[in-house]
Amino acid sequence: MNVPKLATRRRLRPVSKAIWTTAVAGVAFCAFAAASPGTALAAPGAPAVSPGTVDSGPGWAVTQGAGGYAVSVRLPDALPAEDNVPVLVADGKVLGPATQSASGLTLTLTTTDPAVATAKNITWQWSTGSPGTGATPGGSPAPASTAPNATATPSSGHASGPTLGSDPAAPGPYKYTTAVYDFGTEAIPLANIGGVRGEVQGKIYLPSSGGPHPLVLFMHGRHSTCYNTTTDAAANIWPCPSGDAEIPSYAGYDGAGDALASHGYTVVSISANAINANDNQKAPDDGAQARGQLFLDTLTWLKKADAGQPVSFYDAATDRTVTLDQALAGTGMTAADLAGTMNFSDIGLMGHSRGGEGAATAAVLNEGLARPWDIKSVFMLAPIDFTRTTIPDVITTTLLPYCDGDVSDQQGQHFYADSRNAFGDNVLSSDIWVMGADHDFFNTYWTPPFPGAADDWTTGGQSATDPVCGLNSPTTTRLSSTQEYSVGTSYLAGFFELTLGGQTQYLPMFDGAGAEPSSVASFADIRTVAQQPASMRDDITSFANSSPSITASGSMTPTICADQSGRTVPLTVPPCASGLTNQQVPYWTPANYAPNVPLNQMTHLAWTDGTAALNVAIPADERNVSGYQEMTVNMSPDASVTTGTDMTISVSDGKGHSYSTLASSLNKWAVTRMPSSTSNLLGKIVLQQVHLPTATLKAAGLDLKDITDVTFGAAVGADGTASGGEYLQDLAFDSRGLGVPGARSRPTVNVASTNVQESTGPSTSEVAVYLSRPATSTVTTYLTVIGSATGEVGLAMDPVTFRPGQTCQTENIPMTGSTAASATPTTAYKIAVSDPHNAVLGTGDFGTVTVAANTVTSGSTAPPDGVQGNPCAELAALSHPGHLSARGNGKVTAGSVVTVTGLGYRAGESVAFSVGSAQAGTGIASASGTVSALVTIPSGQGTGLVTISAVGAGSGFTSTARIAVVR
Predict the structure, then answer these.
(1) d(CA 407, CA 673)
(2) Phi and psi torsions of 830, nearest 5°
């Protein structure tokens, strides 16, 4: 049987609430190290044993599939609605992300891993490793906790940085109105999510005068969609059933919406409940494309409204067409009020949680358009990143809450890490870490006491008395819900006032300077890492590769490293982290659909005494740094450091002058471990940024036109020793600024689905990875085949390179053979492309390899797929239908027989013929790809031209002929 290869890793919120705390209490937290499975589920019995079952146990079963196995786990109740995705675990080994059934009671995946055929236990866990219940006993909302620091002053760990003189959250001079629009619960077809229709609903914040105003769109993440008005029990279903009320997650960002509207911005916050109710079940990418396209579809109807054109949507739920005035009925706002209010040359997007991935996807889909929208900036709030998406040409920031109990591995950090060197684009990008913040309290409807809301730190399985993140601990660093909401409001408002409104006084909040607005400065500990625009920096080294210009001396041992240990594909360099959970290493935590794609390569330093040093010699053509404001480098202690270490940073010029200072004097967090406790979510390794002003170097007598060396030397650290370990990344000289944002049309990267025939022994299948159009520079990406948690079936990940002008590459997928009969006629394995450079992910970033079984236990086999041809050629043929020759014995009349012949098919594939919409026979293509069949014209066929079509079962190639039917 043919078997492609690999697998791995994520959100839902409460449906039936109490069960999950106990049901998954034993879940392990490291999906790619030696993960131990969750507690065996007390399911109502194993799935019914079906033909082809090869292994089973309480609540789970494994059946033989074409090219591998189908695994199913039965749940006692539906999963809560979290941003996580469930993964299946066999005897402690993570198999990969599972698909939820429509009822939410069954989790399934297909895998090529032969270990499942003999597994002793199969269960599930959240992909981040968190048990993540989102639930409290009895189905009632979690009680609101009162943070002991509700009026706290900053802890001793408060980040240093100036307090701004103005505050973006302060009310502005504009009067504004708000209105909730509602075109219906099933008013628009959603992208790539199984034909589901979704709501066109949301909230508008509209300045009352002036205009057109910069336009900002918000989107919430994955939360329960409804709650019962009698019991308060939350559910994840759409539309909400009778007796349930909608949870208006879109209305949870009033603080930022009000602040921006009062400063002259039109804000629209979009509802995405239909996506939340269907993404894990029906979307191959868990809803990323659906959310991204919903952003773009919202821009489309808003532009029509702004132009004064009629706007309406057909709502399938009520079988009526709803106009914009009807959607705004009773709000005091009309369609006429929206005309001329929006500036479509200044667009910003904000997404929270899965909405953050949606905002990133919208920016990427936008660049695949021939005429993209003028999106200037994207704010991702506690986002997920299942596919390793890279984002070019727009100013971005990613806000990461340190006490996130939902997206506890802070995988959204990858947006910054992956994009920073992927395009050479001229825009500011930044990571913002908010210490003491959880995932949910940025949205008022995700905050207790609202039904279905809870503190995600504790519902994620962590202790409420944790000394760092527990709300009920006297030593907690946690922000109260009010404080956290204030941080979100200030940073959202400040970001868009800066990037769309030119309010440069807020630049120090995002450019690494560490400035905080007055509304949060008294209690917030916020740490920022930024990469300045390409035109405003000189990258000396990323520390991602060895170089003759980088030399070690004394006891210094530098190692180029990447990734977390436990990857199932051999790495070309050692892992940067080992023995830690994915939550503790967000720089290296694997992505759901790109688990083995290399991640965050950098240099790891280790030293044993004060003789250790690492010298970076600056190339001659980069020694003039007089035009830059500062030198920056990103640093973090490694896991061997218990509290802190230190390094001396020395800069020299060509005349032998030198300036030295301790890294701790520039930013103590660069050499201090992040807060830790008994929770294995904490003690994270997070790179922080050191800033050394060039003015300081000049004052010390250095010649800024001839800086020759930067040296990192061992120093006595906080633990009193001169031994230590440190990670280094991105040494640069730069000046701070926004750059020049502006979306542009770029080629997109896609992967073509393919059908292959099962074999009885080892073989190779192929898939086509392709660009939407030729690129002018080299494009790189990675192909991942999801379906095996080991490397036993061959590489599950391959880098793909397109030279300028190339548009399609063929990639081999090793397949394992078998003579065993499958339980089903076909088995599909998911494939995905990720982490593209110089191109963006397209609408075809996911695909499938569908394996047709030779024999099936039920006796019903699929039509033969034939011998796979060159997948790039087969892909090209799909857009160029062939021509059939049709010959009858005399006149072609209804009921007569026509001999039809076509060329260009796979050898041995079944070809289905049809006349109009009526099936009219099959044929098998010859070794040369020729197929013939006797096709009967339906007896009821009317006179005139009719189309005869022939479609290949494996290739999908279509040929047609038009014939005239006469009396």
Answers:
(1) 21
(2) -80, 140
Higher pLDDT, 890 or 869: 869
- pTM for the model stands at 0.90
Angle between helices 288-306 and 354-367 (to 10 degrees): 70
Average pLDDT of span 499-528: 96
Name the CA dihedral angle for 90, 95, 99, 104, rounded to a multiple of 10 degrees: 30
Which neighbouring-strand residues pair with 68? 65
**Residue recorded with tokens 């794609």:** 597
> Buried b vs exposed e over 9-33: b needs ≥16 C-beta within 10 Å?
bbbbbbbbbbbbbebbeebbbbbbb
The pLDDT of residue 794 is 43
User: What pLDDT shows up at residue 717?
Assistant: 65
Q: Are strands 646-653 and 658-662 parallel, antiparallel or unpaired?
A: antiparallel
What is the rounded distance in angstroms from the CA atom of residue 536 to the CA atom of residue 735? 5
748-877 maps to CATH 2.60.40.2030: yes
> DSSP string of 110-136?
EE--GGGGG-S-EEEEETTS-------
Task: Write phi, then psi, for 720 (nearest 5 degrees).
Answer: 80, 10
Contact between residue 954 and residue 925 where contact means Cβ atoms under 8 Å apart = no
- Structural domain spans, the chain: 19-139, 176-458, 539-562+622-734, 748-877, 878-965
- E strands along 532-675, which residues? 537-541, 550-553, 557-561, 602-607, 613-617, 630-637, 646-653, 658-662
**What's the helix, strand, coil split of the chain in %, to 5?**
15, 35, 50
Tokens of 643: 């509290």
Residue 404 has pLDDT above 50, yes or no: yes
The SS3 call for residue 635 is: strand
Average the pLDDT over 619-634 and give the result. Answer: 98
CATH of region 176-458: 3.40.50.1820
Domains 748-877 and 878-965 fall in the same CATH topology: yes
Q: Is the domain 878-965 a CATH 2.60.40.10 member?
A: yes
